[in-house]
Amino acid sequence: MQPSKSSGQPAVRQTVDRGSWTRGAVAEGFEPVAHAFSAAIQSGAALGAACTIMHRGETVVDLHGGWKDRSHESAWAADDITLVYSLTKGLTGIASAVAVSRGLFAYDEPVADIWPEFAAHGKGSVTVGEALSEQAGLAAIDFKLSLETLGDEKAICAAIARQKPNWVPGDHSGNHAYTLGWIASELIHRRDPYGRRLPQFFAEEIAGPLGVDVYLGLPDTFERDRIARIDGFGMQDLFIHHTTMPWPLTFEMCLPGTLAFRTLNNPLILEGPGALDCDEFWRIGQGAAGGMASARGLAALYNAFAEGGEKLGVTPEVMSLLTQGHRYPRKGLKDQVLTANMYYSYGFEKPFSEWEYARTSSAFGSFAVGGSLAFCDPQDSVAYAWITNKLGTGKWDDPREKLVRDAFYACLEDFS
Length: 416
Prior knowledge:
- This protein is of the alpha+beta class.
- 32% of the residues lie in helices and 13% in strands.
- The strands form 3 sheets. The chain has a 7-stranded antiparallel β-sheet with strand order 1-2-4-3-12-11-10, with helices on both faces. Strands 5-7-6 form a 3-stranded antiparallel β-sheet.
- Strand 8 and strand 9 form a beta hairpin.
- Helix 1 runs antiparallel to helix 14, helix 2 packs across helix 7 and helix 5 crosses helix 6.
- It is globular.
């Protein structure tokens, strides 16, 4: 039986109810995904998690399990949201694709044509596409970030504009852990007829029309008891519980003056990413690390792209660029911050030889600190989201998430 619209019938859903371990539903033939999902919860490797996967427009996996916080008093519910860290970059990539499709700016347009101050220190030829592909050399900035200053986009963008690049733009790429969101927000703000910044543009042009629980800036009206709280890690855990994090990165994050330290510890200063899980940060709508989302919402967003982007007015030309990917940096894929290869493209990460997270190279999405992953594969008609509130200490291919993804693709092979 084909679990898709191409069969002429909707997927047959099998209810899954394993108490606090796993609840939800899977399409017939995808039962092994539920077993894989439950394994992480039952083992204690994941405090709580949720996974939604769509194929050819049908939801074939919709699971949630575990707990909202370390008290183990409240079970994770189907529509609960959590802080999704760098999955937010994909949301910013989506917003940028919509903006380009509407003619606000072009990927091959110099940033300085839109934002003249950005040209300082030799950045005048950096294109929008290069900036969104994390090649602009603006991973670390000299501006002191804190919960008090993170929401001051005007001051932060002025600092980005006058920042000397960390490397020659275009030579390398590197994880723009926070700055990617502010760069995209300033571009949208300067060209949007209504002067909106990224959080408002995303809410009104993307999340609102699709009716999804995905937020860049959590509204005061959102029920806080629907938030799964983060169980984070400290710097010592990267050594004690070391998994796939590159050792050079682990050491450099602890050494003041290194690019990794300057990028990843401003504003955290060795507190660990769990320190951002607070109401002050949820409200800001930081466009690279501050997104709040449910797995269902993320899958629905990416499904709009898996189906070609028409629901959001994304043009075929933009879809073609996203699936093909931005050109590599001149000196290769080594991330100057993370110390390992990574393929950044227009606000997303793309599959490449060392990390083929999807079956085809048309895929694009984002992974996050702690193990979460969300992406679409237009060629395969797949939209995927796996999120957790228990942060792992790996780089990518978190073993909890990968077990689920591998089970899904094994099931999908049976229908190919």
